[in-house]
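TODO from last week: model Transport permease protein.
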Amino acid sequence: MNSLRWAVADGWTVTLRSLDRWVREPGVLLLGLLFPVLMMLMFGYLLGGAMAVPGGDYFEFLMPGMFALAMLFGIESTTIAVATDAARGITDRFRSMPMAPSAVVVGRSVADMLNSALGLGVLMIGGQLVGWHSHGTAAETMLAVALLLLLRFAFLWMGIYIGLVIGKPEGAIALQILVWPFAFVSSTFAAPDTMPGWLGAAAEWNPMSATAVACRDLFGNPTWGEPSWATDHAMLIAVLWPLALIAVFVPLSVRRYQRLSR
């Protein structure tokens, strides 16, 4: 119990360090919160007129996909922050202190989850301003939010591990090149059956697609495309994908952190 309390206290101290940076650099926080809103407006108004969505409202289809997309975009900031701390020697200084070995990565994950929850709230408010609404019950809406944050938690640990492996912010920036194809090969903006066969299959099994489809069902928003096993079992896949990613990248991240500078 003493070890657990020690780990929790140290993890919260590292979390407060990240939160203090929000106060000292509010412009960075504000830009991160508004970027998904800008993406929503661009794709909603630029592409919406060309999309024939059941019900006729592209924003109703788009928003659950945008919520999932926002959970993915956070991986870049996580990776860059972890790599920057490693490059500046801050991570090594933490490791030299009498603190719990898991405190740094756990503290980073808690701070980023708070940031993601705030960003998701801002994006949902922005969606309501352009006509999107959740037509599900309060319980269904909360379950959809929980699925989105679960996806973010999984992507977050991927970002932590990649940042620890790369170790330099310059290398972490290259991650953006990989994020965009992964984001677009999904059901965020269009139905997978409108894509070439192999590409549509990849889009259907994208973790983002499963979460987006499950959230559309829970929010009562229109879906698009032909039904398939992946869409019929989107809720199950939206839970299994993140849990699998967490099971892989949490121990990898902790082990990688413990082996730094050895």
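Done. Residues 58-87 form the longest helix (30 residues).
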